[in-house]
Amino acid sequence: MTDDKTRIFKEFFSRFTLRHYKQGETLIRADDDPQGIFCLTTGYVRQYTISKSGMELTLHILQPTSYFPMVWAINGTPNVYYFEALTEVEIGRAPRDEVVAFIKNKPDLVFALMSELLEDYAESLLRIEHLVFSDAYRRVISVLLYIAKHFGETADDHVTVKHRFTHQDIATLVGVARETASIEMAKLTKSGLVRLVDHSMEFDSLQKLEAELLLASPSFET
């Protein structure tokens, strides 16, 4: 969303009381009727699902400025996902009816929101492809690229992610056990493709990481 569209929406949400959540607190539970539309202004929120066996799979990590759950807001589709504070977060919350009334006569704003949803959808398809066709090593690489591109700060070719994503965080993004994620992360740190420094994650070259992903890709030739 452009800065102008973000400003318009943030001004609307500024009319409502800001709420603060601690790391690990649940904002929305699966199958619960959300209490409104949330505007994330500070921190990270993860959207996830839980399998029948109890395994968590993180579907998306939201960062400022994000609005959720927009699918429920626009067409009333029941929410089936959990939303949890990955860090301490600051959030505005507005009644669904007021949000819909605010945007319905603003086609440019609706288009911007739809563009974001479609971008997330395209990214989800790519992640599904990796989950289905890739081994654990390649899946971890794809998640590291996702983290670096969405949460990294770039200086020349060097990328730093200041939030320390734990092995458990990576495991829930990849859909494997924490121990498996730790094994694959150890391989990547040993090869120098990623460094864990204090509470940061550093990448000297995303191009090398992308090349490793292609090199590790399975062949489907017969």
TrEMBL record:
Q: What Gene Ontology cellular component terms go with this record?
A: cytosol
Alphabetized CDD domains for the sequence: CAP_ED
Q: Which residues form the Cyclic nucleotide-binding domain?
A: 19-120
Question: Record's InterPro entries?
Answer: cNMP-bd_dom (IPR000595), cNMP-bd_dom_sf (IPR018490), Env_Response_Regulators (IPR050397), HTH_CRP (IPR012318), RmlC-like_jellyroll (IPR014710), WH_DNA-bd_sf (IPR036390)
The keyword Transcription is annotated on this UniProt entry: yes
**Which UniProt keywords are listed?**
DNA-binding, Transcription, Transcription regulation
Q: Which residues form the HTH crp-type domain?
A: 134-207
Give one Pfam family. Answer: HTH_Crp_2
Identify the domain of life. Bacteria
Give this protein's Gene Ontology molecular function annotations: DNA binding; DNA-binding transcription factor activity
* Record-given protein name: HTH crp-type domain-containing protein
Q: Which organism is it from?
A: Candidatus Wirthbacteria bacterium CG2_30_54_11
